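Q: Give me the 3D complex with 2-phosphoglycolic acid.
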Amino acid sequence: MKKIFAANWKLFKTPEQTREFFVKFKDLSAATTGELVFFPSAICLEAASTSLQGSDIRWGAQNCFAQESGAFTGENSMAVIKGLGAQYVLIGHSERRSIFGETNSLVSEKVVLAQKLDLIPMLCIGETLAERESGKTNEVLKNQLLAGLTKIDKSKKLVVAYEPVWAIGTGKVASPEQVAETHTAVFEILKSLNLETTPILYGGSVKPDNAKELIRQSHVGGFLVGGASLEPSSFAAIASV
Ligand code: PGA
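A: Here is the predicted complex, encoded as structure tokens.
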């Protein structure tokens, strides 16, 4: 199966910087054999859509609301991003869960709507440091997966991104052993739900110098990259491992 290399730009880049990035990145991306997916901030999605027209590079939003439309001031609509040409939507990133209070049940509603609109949900899961240190990692991941996927349509595509919260933006990457062990646990949970073909991406301080070793670990189907995806050459290096 093709590896997936996804870029989460968070609240970085203007529309102009988005266009400049893709001018440089499109040349560099020839070296990758994986599927490339970008998650710019909502206000830059149109710039991404225009820049990527006619290319195989995919894109989506970092978050959308669980309803297509209505009186939801300040939210973004999956129906609108679908209309703009998005293929993906990132759902339940740990920053959404911890800063904006997203619950497993809201996350589940978002997964359902994404699939209904033929967007591919990239569902993020991950444990905090306290949860890992108290031996609860697998239990937390299982709860997040079971709750997030209760109403899933198994005939439609889904991607899971495992991102240990303590490794996001901290420079503390999970060790290859931790990645192999945890991805295997996530795979077993997905298998018990008859979802064993779901790609499982690793995220959390992925950089060009650790990507080679991490991609070789069991059940690693690609990466979700934050900081190191902001520079064209660094993300291209990660996507070419
Ligand atoms: P990071 O972010 O690569 O900067 O750790 C990953 C993410 O938040 O998806």
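A quick observation: The mean pLDDT is 97.
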